[in-house]
Amino acid sequence: MDWFETWFDTPYYHILYKNHDYSEAEAFITKLTAVLQLPEGARIIDLACGKGRHSVFLNKLGYDVLGLDLSRNSIEYDEQFENPKLKFAVHDIRNEIIGERADAVFNLFTSFGYFKTEGEDQAVFDSVAGALKKDGFFVLDYLNQQYVRNTLTDRQEVQRDGITFHIHKRIEDNYVIKEINFDDEEGEFHSYFERVKLHTPEKILKYAERAGFERIRIWGDYQLDDFDEDTSPRCINLFRKV
Question: What is each CA distance from 29 to 19, 57, 199, in whole angstroms?
């Protein structure tokens, strides 16, 4: 199994990242949808939705939302929030998305770049293109690879729920690799890792253009400030299906 099929499906992944700023995420989504000017009731696919926080908020804003994620545990958790305009399903982002075409697809908080081959990366863009209406939007919120190279901290410890996570980061073969080691509540040792490709904005654009997208703009953070290759923490791409 690939690393993301095991790590994302454990409770410890959600414990480690439980401090994600919900207010910042909701402010970002509010600004983003205002820029896109999607009409109320527009259909949005939240691709790699995790525990559904963005899907739920998008639905509260009046959108018809489908949240998709590979983690069965996450989707089972998300199903408690379902209503006629909010649905969830298990889905691999490399595969075709079946169903009604969407006005927008959001892939948020670095939920791309996990795969080993260029063909798999391209398959994600092709899948999104097939799921969108003509002129539909694709938002790919990705890390800024140059910023990661400039600011990488190799070691840190994170305390969450009585667990000390020992984290070691390195760059190897154009991937940023994060090793995560810890003892659980019973004293049992666990070891996981994350591996994310350091895609440049130029490489991302090539994937998009092959799938039939044009890039409208790039933002550098969740306040939607302009992108700077050296100083922006994020690389948030806005594409339109042509």
Answer: 18, 8, 23
Q: For residue 147, give both structure tokens.
A: 């910023």
| Nearest CA-CA partner of 1 in 167, 114, 142 | 114
pLDDT digits (tens, 9 = 90+) for 5-48: 899 989 999 899 887 767 888 999 999 999 999 998 999 999 99
Could you give the residue ranges of the DSSP H alpha helices within the chain? 3-7, 11-16, 22-36, 53-60, 72-78, 118-131, 145-151, 201-210
Q: Of the candidates 79, 61, 59, 83, which has an alpha carbon nearest to the alpha carbon of residue 69? A: 79
Nearest C-alpha neighbor of 5 from the set 63, 64, 48: 48
Other Cβ atoms less than 10 A from the Cβ of 92: the count is 15
Q: Which residue has the tokens 């409208």?
A: 216
Quick one: pLDDT at residue 45?
Answer: 98
Core vs surface per residue 107-138: b (16+ CB within 10 A) or e = bbbbbbbbbeeeeebbbbbbbbbebbeeebbb
User: What's the half-sphere exposure (Cβ side, CA atoms, 13 Å) at 198?
Assistant: 17
Please tell me the distance from the alpha carbon of residue 142 to that of residue 131, in angstroms, as a whole number: 20
List Cβ<8 Å contacts ≥24 apart for 200-204. 200/145, 200/146, 201/227, 201/229, 201/235, 201/237, 204/140, 204/142, 204/235, 204/237
